[in-house]
Amino acid sequence: MKDEGKMFIGGLNWDTTDEGLRKYFSEFGKVDACTIMRDPDGRSRGFAFLTFEEAGSVNAVLTRDHVLDGKSIDPKRAIPREEHLRNTRYFVGGLSPVTSADSMREFFSAFGKVVDATVMVDRESGRSKGFGFVTFEDSANSEQFVGKLGLVLDDKQIEVKTAQPRSQRDQARSLVGNREPYFNDQDSRTPSTPSVSFNTQQLWAAQAAGA
Hints:
GO terms for molecular function: mRNA binding. The chain is an alpha+beta fold. It contains six helices and eleven strands.
């Protein structure tokens, strides 16, 4: 219920206080928590998170426009972090050994704003494990690359899948005993050639290793 009652409040006046924000939204229901996000020096960052005791209060807020301290503000239903990552974070398999985070970021920038790109590497050797993750600002263009054949990065065909939520990756971790999916069982330091086609268990195992 707490997540259902949580809201993101954007566009705040720099002078708006936690107390003023709480008082304003108390008109719509009991406010359990209210925090304006601030820089280390204490200056407001212009947005806040607010949690109502009842989810119905969120619906009441969303039915009208809001002005606080002389400024139009923008309340939205907060998206849980795990759900947000599930919608914007993608698993990239079949990477070339020469692919770097920078080249992966450059490649996927053609599909939208990339906020993070990571190639997973072996801790001992520093060599690529053959997979990574890319996170976009939003998922608007995901149909252009998720599950599509013919995507080639650094002269190697890659495969992109929606990243699984952490809860499912944890389940996969327990199933495979923390083994790396792209390394031989006999010698965890010897990379094996990853296949472009991944089954579900391999995908979850790879994501578990990257958690």
